[in-house]
Amino acid sequence: MTDTRWVGRSYETAPYTVTEASIRDYMAAVGDERAGQSLIAPPTYAMVYGFDAFWQLWTDQEVALDVAHLVHGEQRFSFHRGVRPGDRITTTGRITAINPRGDMELVTFELQSKDERDEPVSDATALFIIRKP
Amino acid sequence: MKAMLAAQDFAQIRPGQSLAPLNKRVTVEQIRQYAAASGDRNPIHLDETFARAAGLPGVIAHGMLTMAFANQLVTDWLGDRSYLKRLQGRFAGMVLPGDELTCSGIVASRDEEHRRLVVHITVTNQRGEKVFTKGIAEAEFPAQRSENHGA
Questions:
Q1: In A, which residues are within 8 Å of B75 by CB distance?
Q2: Is B41 near chain A, with CB under 8 Å?
């Protein structure tokens, strides 16, 4: 069982500079390659610029989540604007809940992503399910 | 390959309308490519031995890959990625290499004043099992241009 005292712990990413190559890699990986007149990332590209916040959580040795038994249960996003090459995005992720449910544990992680002018780009909430080994 | 699509006309959309379904076949190669592009190299997605030791049937696809398909279902239909304002859902079942997924959506409601739409989304596999449920997307269409635009 993860210690509930970690509720409130937060992680901030270094600024992520969006490149055309990284958007195109993502589009090719998910098979969403339709492009408009200007290149706007698929909204779920939020996982790319925000990923380091997840990584910091999963590798935090003090919180010590059992990542081998962790699955992504639910996800929600709010998108405030389209993301384009040249954007510099910083994401802060915060553990907002750790709850047991039956023989599982639910961990809620909330993320906010902002651009270089401190304007919101997207918000997200991830719910992780940790199965008992 | 799909050509550029014209944006949907908000005035023509009606609740109850279905979106054109999106079909995806998930492969080991695609899961690897997604891991590289997203940075998520958790071994449950890449290492067969590790995945089995963790109690899984083998490597599984990232939930976020399925959500990317749900995203594409809606934005292909909308014709503009920047219209999508909200996307959520539940990863209800594992997706394994070889699975053939069908993403379907239906317009649940339409708000004339705010030019917003809510679409309900489900993703099922080749056995009809739901792998993504309670999918909700919300889109906002830009305000209509005035007739004297560009005077």
A1: 32, 42-43
A2: no
A36, A47, A76 ranked by CB distance to B88: nearest = A76
What dotted CATH number matches A4-131?
3.10.129.10
Residue B150 pLDDT: 45
Q: Which CATH architecture has domain B13-27+60-140?
A: Roll (3.10)
Q: Where are the domains of chain A?
A: 4-131
CB atoms within 10 A of CB B131: 24
ipTM of the complex: 0.95
Q: Where are the domains of chain B?
A: 13-27+60-140
* B43-59 pLDDT, tens digit each: 999 999 999 998 899 99
Give me the amino acid identity at B42.
N
User: Where residue B146 falls among pLDDT bands split at 50, 70, 90?
Assistant: low
B6, closest residue in chain A (CA to CA): A36
